[in-house]
Structure formats: C-alpha cells, structure tokens
Design brief:
The chain is an all-alpha fold. The protein contains 23 helices and no strands.
Length: 419
C-alpha cells in the first residue's frame, strides 16, 4: 500500500470516521472520495490537518516528500482555524515558533495565533497578539496588513467596541485599496463587518450601503476561485472547488459570507419598518444555512424569524424557531444569540399561559448575558421581560427591569431574579 489515498482510507476506517467527518471544515465528502480513489491529491498543509484527526504523523502519508517546514505549518495552522479547531492551530504554531521566518511570515503567524485565541474566547490576549502583528507587519505587504486589521476589528466587535471596530475595518479597507489584486473574499468580510458595526450604532443607511457592497464583493470572490485556480495550474484546488460548489457544502465560505450579509440586510430592513422584506431575507438565509449546515447562521436567522413570529402573535411558531436558534447557537458557541432566543421562547411561552417556562427561559437568558457583560443584549432582554411582567400586572418589577435597560446598570439584576 503506497498511495496517499490508500493510506488515508485505511487510517480513516481504523479511526472509525466517515468521509464526511474527516472532511469537516476542510473539504467535502466528494473530495475525500476522490483522494481515496487516487483521483485527487490534497495539499500537504491540508493533509497535515487530516493526519492530526487520524492520529497519524504526516510522514505516514508522504514518507518520501519533505516539505518546507514553516510554510507547511503556517498553512496547516490556518486550515485548523478555518476548520474550527483553534487548539490544534495553537499547537501547530508552537511547533513553528522556533523556525527561521521572514518578517511577513512572523506577522502572519501572529495573526493566525490571534484568530485562534479569539476562537477560544481569549479576546484580550487575542487583541494584544493581533496588535503586535500589526506593529511588526512590513508596510509593503498591504494584503497582510488588511488581514490583520480585519481580525482586530472582529475581536473589537465581539467586545462590543463598535466605534473602535469600525476604525480597524476602515484601516483594513484602506490597505485593500492599495493592493493591485486584492482578495475579494477579504474585501467582502471587511465590508460586512463595517455594515454590522454601523447597524449596531444605529447608522442604518450606512449599514445597508456596506452590506450591498459586501454582497457584490462576495460574488466576485466566488467567481474568482475557479478562474484563479485554473490560471495558475492548481488542478487539485480547482477540482476541490468544483466538488464543493456542486455539493453546496462548506468551503464555499463565500456562500456563508453572502448568507450572513442576507441576515444583516434583513435586520436593516426590519429596523426601517420593512417587515415583509426583512422576513423574506431571513427565510432565504435560514434555508441556505440549513443546506450548508452552518450553525452560526441558523442561529441568527431562526432567532430573527422567531422575533417576527412573536410580534405577529404566532406564538407556537415563535417557540419552535427560537428553540432551533438556541440549539444551533449552542453548537456554534454563540451564547449571545442563544440567550436572546431563549428570551423569545420565554415571551412566547408566557403568551400561551406557560408562566413557569417563561420565567425559567428569561432567567437563563439574563444570567447568560450577565456572565458575559453583554450590555446591549441585556438591555433588550430586560425590556422583553418588563413587557411580560407588565401584562401580568407586576408594575413595580416591570419598571425595575425597564430602568435597568435604560440606564445600562445591571447591578440589581441578581436581586430582581430571586424575587
């Protein structure tokens, strides 16, 4: 048994993994099938991540093909991050730390480390690492600088520092404008982030403009993948792209980026009072997210549709959608949307006379948000619970929650929840 495909298949079966499980976040089931039948060959960096999943060293699959160590490790760490395995990415980066590197490579390694730390919810350390990468990245590498600043903006957005996040993403956009051939996928992400942060600051017209530009950039990125792969003769990559496009799965991160843009545009239409347009966009987003098995986007879209159903007095439908949102958000680690969806379920349950269920869901939501100091979401859920209490004729308690939301002072929350 000499071929990579035969070794991969034997190791996969010994590990008890399906082709789909081995491919998760890196490729498609179809691509793994192609490799195992010796019709395609994965890159060494991708093979390194497969090897980790199969509990084998890379040399088991390619004993006679030494690779440039730093290049291989850097690409493997990046793939591990994309496959949502940040701990594995950090382990690979530790292995790469002692190797000789150019200034560009060192800055990019720091960028990847910062992203992995953020995925592990270590946001302060992630921000410090990314700022170090920005300080050391060579000025003549515009795309690297753009990639670093968009990650800084992402962490700042998670920390709800929306003005600072906009500044970081504008810097990223400025760097991209200096590139002769800027990555359209990266541009789409920067514009999406700018739209999201503008929306959170109440700048709805600016947000909508950014989202429209982002959708155009994502389409350009999708088209460029096939063209670029064919132009440089990377036939394995072209084959993989074709498999993924045909199966409507994973990589096409552009599909996920475009889907998130649809969700954000739906939010903007809703804020502008165009509820029909908002609902249609969110339904499209949810359908595509289910096809792509994209839990984060399922959580977003199902949560939005649950809120719309609640407002339309379709309480049973609201509960079903809110439960789907919570489950998907829980799988993706998105505790903020998980908490808001729990509150929506609680509001729907209260309307159907299930007060104990409602109180439990609101308590869970508020505690989850308080643990994460999510002031914006806490204010939203406090107002929702205040409305529930007001209908129960618990005016004093309702006013206390309304006051907390207005003042953004949640120090009395534990006492109120135990009353």
């Amino acid at each position: 048994m000499n071929s990579v495909g035969e070794r991969l298949r034997e190791a996969r079966l010994a590990r008890g993994l399906t082709q789909e499980q081995l491919a998760r976040g890196l490729a498609t089931k179809g691509f793994i099938s192609q490799v195992e039948r010796n019709h395609a060959t994965p890159s060494l960096s991708k093979l390194r991540v497969f090897a980790e999943r199969l509990g084998q060293p890379l040399s088991y699959f390619v004993p006679d093909r030494p690779a440039p160590p730093l290049t291989l490790l850097r690409k493997a760490a990046q793939l591990a991050v994309r496959a949502e395995e940040p701990a594995q990415a950090l382990a690979i980066l530790t292995e790469a730390a002692g190797l000789p590197a150019t200034a560009n490579e060192r800055a990019d390694l720091q960028r990847i480390r910062g992203v992995a730390l953020s995925e592990l919810r270590q946001n302060q350390e992630a921000l410090s690492t990314l700022q170090g990468a920005a300080a050391t990245a060579p000025m003549d590498d515009a795309e690297l600088n753009a990639a670093i600043y968009v990650e800084i903006g992402t962490v700042l957005q998670i920390e709800e520092q929306f003005n600072a996040a906009i500044e970081a993403n504008r810097r990223a956009l400025d760097w991209l404008d200096r590139c002769r051939h800027a990555d359209p996928e990266l541009r789409a992400r920067v514009l999406t982030n700018l739209g999201s942060n503008s929306f959170r600051l109440g700048q709805h017209a600016e947000a909508l403009a950014f989202f429209v530009r982002a959708l155009d950039a994502a389409l350009d990125a999708h088209m460029a993948l096939g063209v670029a792969a064919r132009a440089v003769g990377e036939l394995d990559r072209a084959l993989e792209h074709c498999n993924r496009a045909l199966e409507l799965h994973s990589r096409i991160r552009h599909e996920r980026a475009a889907n998130r843009i649809l969700n954000n545009m739906g939010d903007v239409h809703y804020a502008a009072g165009r509820k029909r347009e908002a609902a249609e966009l969110q339904r499209q987003c949810l359908q595509r997210a289910r096809e792509l098995k994209a839990d984060f986007e399922i959580g977003l879209a199902a949560g939005a549709l649950a809120r719309y159903a609640l407002e339309d007095r379709k309480y049973s439908a609201a509960i079903v959608l809110a439960q789907e949102s919570q489950q998907a958000a829980g799988r993706s680690g998105d505790h903020l949307h998980m908490a808001v969806a729990a509150a929506v379920e609680g509001a729907g349950a209260d309307r159907l006379g299930r007060r104990r269920v409602a109180d439990r869901r609101f308590t869970e939501a508020l505690k989850m948000l308080a643990e994460r100091s999510a002031a914006s979401e806490l204010a939203e859920v406090c107002m929702m619970y205040a409305d529930v209490l007001r209908r129960r004729k618990q005016g004093d308690r309702a006013f206390s929650f309304m006051r907390m939301a207005a003042e953004r002072d949640f120090t009395r929350l534990p006492a109120l929840l135990h009353r």
